[in-house]
Amino acid sequence: MARGCRLSHLSRDVPGSVFRGNRKFEVMSGKPKLYYFNGRGKMESIRWLLAAAGVEFEEEFLETREQYEKLLQGGSLLFQQVPMVEIDGMRMVQTRAILSYIAAKYNLYGKDLKERALIDMYVGGTDDLMGFIMMFPFLSAEDKEKQRAFIVQKATSRYFPAYEKILKDHGQDFLVGNSFSWADVHLLEAILMVEEKKSDVLSGFPQLQAFKARISSIPTIKKFLEPGSQRKPVPDDNYVETVRRVLRMYYDLKAN
């Protein structure tokens, strides 16, 4: 790991209550609470970022339509969608907003506006790649094979070459500046997801191979990658069925 990288931010206390005027407001929980399915989906990147920051969190898994309806009727889901995260007295929705808040709160969002712009740019590229993977469990068997080839092709011809060049030109251990950031967490998550589709996908990318080893060895990341963590496994048929039942998602997705 590069000298002088900033990792001292990886633990902060969250107050149990806040005062506004003469009124005391209890924070919903000392730990963030995540509302989603017991699977990856759009919540997985939030789990990754919290884990990278060394933040413990609780989860409530949606298993029935009734649970989802209760959240809707209670006004917890601003746009009638999950993920939803209770954090610092807020009920946050919209994945990108949640991730941005966590990154900024735990100093994983760069030291200035320029670094933040680069992080946003790199995260956006990684998001595009991950979007191709996120739909994979909901495809037919025939479409899954097409999508697998499409994911590997896009990763190796568009996204991984870009990050390989960034790391080579940059000459540092991290994507932005000389500090561990949200961009590094997001890229490692994506690399591991693509490797699940083709295990040797990094064979032509020595910079990314070294990057993967470095970021995986950061203590909070290493802990998250160990068995028994809150990291979720590859989505299976039970996960797909639960999502379809709760969201009444009675239609098939198509390969890209």
- What sequence of helices (H) and strands (E) makes up the elements? EEEHEHEEHHHHHHH
Give average pLDDT, whole number.
Answer: 89
Quantity of strands, as a count: 6
| Range of strand content | 5-15%
Described by strand count, sense and barrel closure, the largest sheet is: 4 strands, mixed
Describe the structure.
With 256 residues, the protein is of the alpha+beta class. Helix content is 48%, strand content 9%. It has 9 helices and 6 strands. The protein has helices at 44-52, 65-73, 95-105, 113-134, 141-170, 182-195, 206-216, 219-225, 237-247, and strands spanning 17-20, 23-26, 33-36, 58-61, 84-87, 90-93. It has a 4-stranded mixed β-sheet, with helices on one face. A two-stranded antiparallel ribbon has the order 1-2. The longest helix is centred in the middle third of the chain and has 30 residues, at 141-170. The two termini are 38 Å apart. Mean pLDDT is 89; it is low at 1-27.
Notable traits:
single chain, two-stranded antiparallel sheet, globular, 4-stranded mixed beta sheet, disordered N terminus, 256 residues, alpha+beta
Q: What does the secondary structure layout of this molecule look like, with pairings?
A:
Layout: E1 17-20, E2 23-26, E3 33-36, H1 44-52, E4 58-61, H2 65-73, E5 84-87, E6 90-93, H3 95-105, H4 113-134, H5 141-170, H6 182-195, H7 206-216, H8 219-225, H9 237-247
Parallel strand pairs: 3-4
Antiparallel strand pairs: 1-2, 3-5, 5-6
